[in-house]
Amino acid sequence: MDKTICLYFQVHQPHRLRLYRFFDIGRNSYYYDDFANRTILKRVAERCYLPANRLIHDLITKYKGDFKVTFSITGSVIEQFEKFAPEVIQSFNDLAKTGCVEFLAETYSHSLASLISEDEFREQVLLHSEKINTLFGIKPRVFRNTELIYSDRIGSVVADMGYEAMLTEGAKHVLGWKSPNYLYTNAINPKLKLLLKNFNLSDDIAFRFSNQNWSNWPVTAEKYTGWLTKALEKDDIVNLFMDYETFGEHQSVSTGIFDFLKHLPGEVLKTNKCVFDTPSGICAKHQPVAPLHVPFPISWADEERDTSAWLGNELQNEAFDKLYSAEKKVKESGDETLLADFRKLQQSDHFYYMCTKFFSDGAVHKYFNPYETPYEAFINYMNVVSDFLLRCNRATVREGSGTVIAAEKAPAKKRAVKKVKTV
Questions:
Q1: Which of 120, 123, 147, 245 is an active site residue?
Q2: What is the value of pTM for the model shown?
């Protein structure tokens, strides 16, 4: 059986909040920094998304389908593509037409809903899957949760929604002596297969590629292929998972990152020992070796590989609980604008900006962070949430007073039920 490499990219940009002061509460309910969102998105599109998509399309053509890649694209970045850079969606569509690219499902808002609300989690996953199907004509069969967050319970819910596989982190504290380079299954529902990130080989590209103080610098396609073939001498699969912004944004074009990607498929394929495939392809040809027991949530973030990057301090937990306390009111209001804001405010980035870890992971938390300190991030976010909660209360009062008539509410409630029950 062929040894397999899965190359997966996460595509995401959040809706960044504008400077929202205490005196804005109750007066101005528009929360987003459109200038920053547009500027950053167009910059990353020019540096990463468009040139990387062109290169991958050329490589698929050159190697006649033997080069395959996988993407998950969040609903939040899709909305910004539609608004600021529709040419990026077209370039992804061109990739979809090759038949060599798989698009995964995830939470629409890149949220942490799986940790607190199963109903909201299911609704967002369905919303995202429908969006991907609308844009690319592909119904996702494999799931990738926000930041690779996974536990036995979350995996069981994903299996219940009908997905055949899920991606997560090959965390050392979960694997122990076991290798991440095999297919595993969910401990509750073995129908769900698990692909685990090989974080050493992934981070060699995502984080260490341009580090001239690293003993293995520079990384060439030939050298890296040697590492891949060595990892696959006894194992079945190497899963390389990373942010797509690695190419051209995190690692600038001057580092040689695009040249590396350009030559990697040729070096791998000429060994005649390894092939590229997507998660669905891997599940079709490889057998799981064992269930993976993950009683507590893991992720691909920071040294701990847990959820502490988003919910590791009192600031984050207070903000998180305050936002989700409004879920019932938002859903019952039938207000589509309120629901859209609720989902934008769920984006995990808002909580990531409040992280107070300043040691081994400090530099990572500063990247793309619009705030000087986590305390500024907290204050700004809580001002926004305070206004949002006022709107929720007003919507509830209007509904209770009868100003929102049943005929207006019925369609929204019907859609909400459909989203929960439909796979």
A1: 147
A2: 0.91
